[in-house]
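> agent: user asked for a holo structure of the chain below bound to flavin-adenine dinucleotide. Plan: (1) validate sequence alphabet, (2) canonicalize SMILES, (3) run complex prediction with ligand conditioning, (4) return tokens. Step 1... ok. Step 2... ok. Step 3 dispatched.
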Amino acid sequence: MTDVAADLKGAADTIEAMERTVAAATSRLVELGGVDKNQTLAYELAHAASATAVARAALRYASHGELEARLAFAFIADAAAELAAKTTGREALFGVEPHWLDPVRGFVAACLDPAFVGALAETPGPSHLDEDFTLVADTFHRFAAEQVRPHAEHVHRTNGDIPEALISGLAELGGLGLSVPEAYGGFASGGEHDYLGMVVATEELTWGSLGIGGSLITRPEILTRALVNGGTEAQRSRWLPRLASGEELAAVAVTEPDFGSDVAGITTTATRADGGWVINGTKTWCTFAARATVLMLLARTDPDRAAGHRGLSVLLVEKPVGDAHGFRFDQAGEAGRGPGRLEGRPIDTIGYRGMHSYELSFEGWFVPDDCLIGGDEGLGRGFYLQMGGFENGRIQTAARALGVMQAAYDAAVAYARDRRVFGAVLLDYELSRVKLGKMAAVIQCSRQFAYEVARTMATGDGSLQASMAKAYVCRAAEWVTREAMQLHGGMGYAEEYPVSRYFVDARVLSIFEGADETLCLKVIARRLAEQR
Ligand SMILES: Cc1cc2nc3c(=O)[nH]c(=O)nc-3n(C[C@H](O)[C@H](O)[C@H](O)COP(=O)(O)OP(=O)(O)OC[C@H]3O[C@@H](n4cnc5c(N)ncnc54)[C@H](O)[C@@H]3O)c2cc1C
């Protein structure tokens, strides 16, 4: 395969065939009665549409040159073959012809050829960021290499805390204020650069570590979006500069023991009291809650439960820094209200260590009036503000997945170069090269899609694409880290090799910030059906 121009045509035809298949499956979903009655089709469709959207971004990347084209072609061919596997035997369910791939079979076969894919093993390709963003990437990469990586293994293996110097170093670098508007002391100028800078920085920090790097900037990001979209001027002026400087660190308290994916059903209440609100209820999985000085809490402010998601509001709950292994704070009672208590119990996890997640119990915990985001106008807008924050969180989580994948790929290439098996270098075996070549293609094409989505989001659009990026890239990270671990053989299973950490870290990405199934069914498939 040398004629890139001819193959660009093959690639374009392949993507069009995939897009037709996705469109047919979407029509079929609608015909059959929609998402809730056809979950399997809806779920498969959501992933197929996401992979196809990545393939489209890959095609644009292909126009940069021959290497870029080869990476893109390997990705597109693989995605088409996966889609064909999904539809095989289920043509009636998907509403497609059995041989829909036939017209582009030649392109797919050539680009799945082991020699073609294997040649990409050590060529991850340039990201094609412009000079400014290359500087952003280099700056955060250096910080990740020098300040994050040296602590990553220790924190992971001891379930330890993120070093304070790392947090303050990140704040000095501006990492906590990437989405805070310049007028409030941050770096967001309101252009296409805001989201892209966040994606680039997040990937690099996460390359350093998911648990102690990239995830530090997701919480201020979510709270910042809510304040920018729905806060009062007084709240923005008070909170945004302090979030940007790291003086205040945030945690997000939405999930409850009985309500995770079904956010609209949460039961934690905030009840009017003299001068403020009294909070009662239990939250769970509140990550970073001990170290945080402010919780972004979604609570039911309308006592009428029939109000559903319209009865929810977001409150800012100030709190002292607590012990990572568990904490309890007490508030003295005052006239008209009793004493309050806030307790945090850590939930130990297999990965993503350092951030620490907690079950939080609020009993009569008081917050003053100005803690309701948006003031009285924010009453009942909590669900909308929270979901707006999560939309940005999704593209950021895709960027976190990119960082984990890149770290795993780097480790796998380095190991395969050194390791000899059966008298030869591991990297020289066809199977190793094909695995690494596919990884390189998946990572670069996912990255290009994430960049595109970030640019689109800056125009006020792209929320469906952000969900697609999250769905696709987070699952891809599981495959990449699995194969990177596998290439390490037994040492892949050893804690002393970072790849074992990448594997367990990657696993959480499809669970939080919208569990994969919920995201696919309730957001991606539903919107595809609506847009048909
Ligand atoms: C490490 C970690 C950190 C987290 N950090 C935070 C945080 O900081 N703040 C916060 O508020 N939350 C946080 N979460 C919570 C996270 O967002 C939830 O775990 C997630 O939303 C899923 O909710 P759940 O655990 O209740 O699962 P459930 O909602 O009980 O879902 C269980 C399974 O059912 C699937 N499912 C759900 N609905 C359907 C359906 N209709 N049809 C078919 N399948 C369905 C889900 O996809 C999932 O696979 C964190 C979670 C983890 C693991």
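> agent: step 4 complete. Summary for user: Strands lie at 250-253, 269-273, 276-287, 294-300, 312-318, 327-331, 340-347, 357-368, 420-421, 424-425. Residues 39, 252-255, 260-261, 285-287, 349, 352, 357, 508, 511-512, 515-518, 521 surround flavin-adenine dinucleotide (CB under 6 Å).
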